[in-house]
Structure formats: C-alpha cells, structure tokens
Amino acid sequence: MARIEYHKKTAIPTRWIIGGLCLSVILIVSSILLLLYPFATKEKLDYFSGQNPILFEGKQQGNAIIDGDSVYVPLTFMQENIDESITFDEKSNSIIITTSDKVIQMPSESLTYYVNEKPVQLHFSPIRDEEGELYLALEPVIDLYPIQYSILPDSSGVWIQKDGEELEHGTITVEDVHKEKLRLRNDATLRTPYTAETKGNEEIYVEGEKDEFYFVRKKDGTAGYVHKRLVNKGKTEQITVAREQKVAALPKIDGPIQLTWEAVYTKNPKTDSIPQMPGVNVVSPTWFELANEDGEIKNLGSLDYVNWAKSNGFQVWGLFSNAFDPDLTYKAFKDFETRQKMIRELLHYSQIYHLDGINLDIENVNPEHGPLVTQFVREATPYFHEAGLIVSMDITFMASGNWSAFYEREKLATIVDYLAVMAYDEHWGSSPVAGSVASLPWVENNLQDILELVPNEKLILGVPLYTRLWAVKDSGEVSSTALAMDEVKEWLDTNKLIPAYDEASGQNYAELYVKEEQTTYKIWLEDELSLKKRAELAMKYELAGVASWSRYFADETAWLALNMEKAVTQDSK
C-alpha cells in the first residue's frame, strides 16, 4: 500500500495582503488620474507667423514691412478691413483713395502724391511692390481714417486699432502658483499647447472668456487662455481716434425738394414761354453728355436759362449723362485720368453757368461695370462739394438688366447728397402689355424695397408727368404713344370721354374702342389726382422731395399737386 505524505502549507502574512491591496488601489487611482486629470502640456506654439505681424481685431491679419520709421501694410489688408473703396488704377500705376472731401492719388515709385490734385512731398515712396504684392505706407493715410497703430515690443508687430474699440485692462495674480498655470494656452484647457508665459502682476488685456478661462493679450500682442481665478480685471478703456473732415458748404433749400427736369436735346427753351411753376425750387436742365471715350463732354448750357431760373428763385442742377451707351461708359470710366478729365470739365461748366448742383444721370451700363460708375461718383463728389455744388444721382428701382442691376445703391447713398429714384416705367413704351406708366401700388411696393438701402432723407421720388396712350388691336398687337398732360385732356375731350377711377392702379382710367380700326385705346392718367397721390407718398415716407420728368409734359395743375408741403390726404374717389 502506497504511503501518502501530507505537507503543511505556510500561511501568507496579513501585512503582505494589506500591502498588495494598497498597491493595487494606488495603481488604479494613478491610472484614473492619468486618464482624467488635465496635466499641463509643455508644448509651445508660435502665436505670430512671419516678420512684423499685423494685429487687427483680435487676430493676425497678414504681415507688414517696417523700413526705418515707415510702416507699410498690404493694400489687400486696407481694402478688406479699412476701406474697400481703395483702388489701384493700372493706367496711371496709382493707388486711389477717396474720402468725403478728398481724392488722393499715390503713384508708384514716386516721392510725390496728390491730394485733390495738389502735390505733397514725402521722403519715401508711399507704395512698395514686394514680389508682386503692393504695400501702402501708413503715415500718409493714417489721418484719413479713424484708426491708430503702434509697434509691439519684442515681436515688432503692428497693432492697428479702430475708433470705438474697447480694451479691458487686467493684471495677472501675484499669488504663488506653478508657472504652468500662468502660461497662455491655445484653448481653454491646460492640456493644449501654450503661446506665451506671464508673470505675477503683469498687465494684460482681457478680450473674451470661455468656460472657466479668460482670453487675454499681453503687451507684446501674444494672447491665449488663462484660468479666471488668476486674472484681476480692471477698468475698460475706449479707443478714441478723432479725424477732422471738412463739412461742405452747400446751397440751402427751404422745405422739401421739388425738382423738375428740363429736357434739352438740341437747344434750350425760350424762357419767356415757360409758365409759372409754383412750388418748384430746383430745375435740372439736361445740358452735359459724355461725348467720347477720352472723357470730353458735350455742352448745351445757357446763361440766359440760368438767369431766368435764379430770378424765379430756382436752384440749377446741371444734368450730366453717359449718353446711355454701355460701351462708351466703360471706356471712359475705367481709367482714373479720364474720370478726372470729366470731373474737371464739369467743374469748369459749373463755374461758367453758376450752378448750384450737379445731377448725375448714368443709365444703361453693363452690370459688371457698376463699380466703375460708383468710383466715378466717389471721386467726383469731393471736388463738387469743394466747389459748393449739391450732388444728386438718378437711380431706378431694383431690377435685372443694364438699366438697373449696375447701381450700387447702398454705396452711392453714402457718397452723394441725394438719390432720385425714377419711379417709372412699370410699362415701358414697347411693352407687350398695356398698363400704367407707374401705378401707385407698384411705386409704393418698390419704394419700400429701396428704402431698405437708401435713407429716406436722401431719397427723392421721381414722378412721370407723361402718360401713354395704348393702342391694343383685336389681333393682339400693342403699341403706345407718350402724351403730355394737355394732350391727354385734348384726347379725352375730342372723344367725349370721362375717366373713371381705377382701384388697381390708384389712377383715373379711360378706354375707347374704335370699330373701324379694330382697336381699343387705353390710358392711365397722370393728372392732378395721380400727382397728389405721389406727393402724399413722398410725405408718408418722409422723403427729401419729388422730381418730375419732365417740365415739358406738365400742365398748370401739376406743380401745386406735387407740392409736398400742401399735400393733403384725398378720398381716392
């Protein structure tokens, strides 16, 4: 029988068991801490890139060039952030800057620039070309804009600030904390790379906050996140940059504007044959027209007309048109020197004829060339204002095509004194459908749209004094003839017609069927009722006034009907 041996097992000491358990707990807790506790990373990132970084609105936006005491910034930076209207004119190789009272031309590779054509000498070129990118010196233009700049210590960055910006001051805590916590982090956590270090009691700017962190900026321009409890917030400072701009001394107009255009095609009217126009305070004769691509201007001005107008208490706003030629407009408006030539000619004529204003009637322009028109107006207005001329421009309601789409209405409204909206033609002369030249609902609806872009105190409501007599044949063929107010009355009397009120158009309407011609004649009247309604519309929206096209079409009832100060609400029937 085999012998079985029994061995006694040695017991594990209790202290070993306890020690093992403690070690396990420590390992587990350490693992959890390693996973969950945000230990600060020691990785550092460069806050700025390249030499002479530009700090603007809380971030780097390109790089400057510093040459001695001169600071140059990219032209694109100025266009994108300070003034989108700054342009580069290729023909003259110049940068063009405009303000409300100045036109500045800065030719490349020149120590001279021009302010309203007056030369200004510099000891350095205001423009630099670095590898095909244009840079603009800040010194000659800083006084044109509500901005200021400073050179940042250490980084040699350029900090550009705008008028009205706020700086909230603060300091870093003086309590004894680990330097890791005083580093400015790329995001609101210690686990992201840092961009800069701070120290106790260091002055900083507080620019924002995220979770439990402030976004702060050092005096050298670098910035990042630091815990809120480590920042003592201080006072808020507002940047104030005062820039003086000359206020134009322009002729005064008592009450709302009541303008009428004088259509001058070949010669001026005999002034002794022009009837009284009670309520009218501005006449705008169509005297000046673009003649060729070199910027020469046709002139039909008349001192006799001016003397008559002034003796009747009218201001005279000479009208300049682009001949309604899109190709000619592009060729003449595309170059700075040609635009300046047109402006000089118009200034010359304004002095000859003692004008009070210029009315710009630019129509039928390719939509892509609209900015050239705006630039012409932008460059012309300071000169016209300097000469004491009121500047107005004619525009249309919003629509597609060459006759409307090119107008940059919102920009134009910031440049000129008045915009006259030609609130016609709803149905043009060759329209395939007969209808009103400008029904009242159509005018009001479009007026509401344009007032979203143009301040009411700058808008003049253009009104038609003509109407169209439509001939609609039984075959469907449609044609029209424009009639003056007296001619409409004569046609109604001849045909023994009494107009009836048309609710849809807000106008009086008449219709006649001529069997022998198999034609129906239709007419929506511009009469005393219609014109009063238009004046009331201008009053309702508190517009600057009304303008009528044209004086030739009016009868004696038109002027008082258009008088905004005497406009009263009238029963539509």
Automatic annotation (TrEMBL):
<dbReference type="InterPro" id="IPR036582">
    <property type="entry name" value="Mao_N_sf"/>
</dbReference>
<keyword id="KW-0812">Transmembrane</keyword>
<keyword id="KW-0472">Membrane</keyword>
<keyword id="KW-1133">Transmembrane helix</keyword>
<dbReference type="InterPro" id="IPR001223">
    <property type="entry name" value="Glyco_hydro18_cat"/>
</dbReference>
<comment type="similarity">
    <text>Belongs to the glycosyl hydrolase 18 family.</text>
</comment>
<dbReference type="GO" id="GO:0005975">
    <property type="term" value="P:carbohydrate metabolic process"/>
</dbReference>
<dbReference type="GO" id="GO:0004553">
    <property type="term" value="F:hydrolase activity, hydrolyzing O-glycosyl compounds"/>
</dbReference>
<keyword id="KW-0326">Glycosidase</keyword>
<dbReference type="InterPro" id="IPR011583">
    <property type="entry name" value="Chitinase_II/V-like_cat"/>
</dbReference>
<dbReference type="GO" id="GO:0008061">
    <property type="term" value="F:chitin binding"/>
</dbReference>
<dbReference type="InterPro" id="IPR001579">
    <property type="entry name" value="Glyco_hydro_18_chit_AS"/>
</dbReference>
<keyword id="KW-0378">Hydrolase</keyword>
<protein>
    <submittedName>
        <fullName>Peptidoglycan hydrolase</fullName>
    </submittedName>
</protein>
<dbReference type="InterPro" id="IPR017853">
    <property type="entry name" value="GH"/>
</dbReference>
<dbReference type="Pfam" id="PF00704">
    <property type="entry name" value="Glyco_hydro_18"/>
</dbReference>
<feature type="transmembrane region" description="Helical">
    <location>
        <begin position="16"/>
        <end position="39"/>
    </location>
</feature>
<dbReference type="InterPro" id="IPR012854">
    <property type="entry name" value="Cu_amine_oxidase-like_N"/>
</dbReference>
<feature type="domain" description="GH18">
    <location>
        <begin position="251"/>
        <end position="573"/>
    </location>
</feature>
<dbReference type="Pfam" id="PF07833">
    <property type="entry name" value="Cu_amine_oxidN1"/>
</dbReference>
<dbReference type="InterPro" id="IPR029070">
    <property type="entry name" value="Chitinase_insertion_sf"/>
</dbReference>
